[in-house]
Amino acid sequence: MGVVSIFLIKGVINSSSSKTHKRTSRREKDAKYIHINDDILSRFSKAIQFETVSFSLRDDGKPDSPEELLKLHAHIKDSFPHVHSSPLVKCEVINTYSLLYTINGSDSSLKPYLLISHLDVVPVTDQMWDVPQFEGLVKDGYIWGRGTIDVKNGVMGSLEALEVLLKTGHSPNRGFFLAFGHDEEVFGVYGAASIARELVSRGVSLEFVQDEGLVIIEDIFPGITSPVASIGVAEKGSMSVELRVDSSVGHASMPPKESSIGILCNAIARIERNPMPSTFGCGPEIELFSGISSVVPLPLRIFTSNMWLFKPLVGWILSRKVSTNALVRSTFAVTKIQGGTKDNVIPASATAHVNVRIHHGDTIDGIIQHLRSCINDRRVHITTLEAKRESPIASSDSKSFGYNIIASSIQDVFPNVVITPGLLVGGTDSKHFQQLTSEVYRFMPSRFKMTDLPRFHGSNERISVENYEETINFYYSLMLNADETTL
pTM of the entire structure? Predict the structure, then answer.
């Protein structure tokens, strides 16, 4: 999922400018603030207990945990009676395992918006946990378990907000959708993609899309005392490439001068020694840097306030660290390698898979050309297995309805944060909805310290009880704020 790339913000936000205002939180000014209770906690805890794990993309389209997904469907239906009985709401099951909620607005002239989360989670195989992975344990002020931050908190949090909205008699002015895909962790090709095709077939046009993505970092950089909330206005593209070498099979006692595995390993080494050229500044990176410049301490502010002059230097500095290099260029990661079945048999072929994340400014053809050039060996066959271009960059200026509604909703619940646009280097289900609007945003109202970021897809995933309450209220504020006709 997309939030795994949030670790990049540490290096990124070392230099930017801020769009922040002091405002009173909804908790302090609004009696309708949703306070968490045992019932809300129990509903969320039970949702974590369903092991809706996605292991890999299957050719038959069937998920890895179909029974668990259907159990989660039933739990959601039982948990939110007002949502599922309201005449304003239509709930549909898409492609057997995904859910689409249509919430009708009273003003049909207003374009609806879409909130996305997903039902599936990544596996916990070979991880060391201090608590049971799928128990939904509430302990020490936290809810623990796989999915607490990626991203059943979005599923249950948005439904909790909608339940309260309908229970209090609120009739939305602007219609909206909730989309919960079942296979985001394996590219969303049967879940979110099916939902998107359904909306396209109905002629839906969206005002904006809000999906999971970047988060709130509380200790992002020495000298910056305010938490930083970065709204992803774009995400990188992705590619899966296979490298294959074929050679003659033979006995290990009479090896050839070069084997298929040896040739393949040389190709991989050349790829890792020859990264793509920097395209720093072709995406939203510069805007991100200018976004927090006012709170960056001197003398760093000199650099962040004058990116027109220091862009090459800043790009070079970022490229020196693994945690920030992905903001500067397209990246290659060798993720799978296979060759040989027996100790004394020389394999006839060897293959490797390379995961490519495409930066704005690069093209799919250009990346393939770079691979051929740096490998420089005709015995290595390059095949593109899957490719998805980088996303368009959504607007984030003062006229941007979606960006400012999300920013206002953040400030309602987190009044002291600095808000800035950002680049998500991971992928989300939002990529499937680009036909419906160019205004796609990626943000999750989760608070993190830098030391917590390895919990994404890692061991001991958890969310604080307080932050889950804030998550519910972020969605609640967004639903109220988006009812406005104009900014």
Answer: 0.89
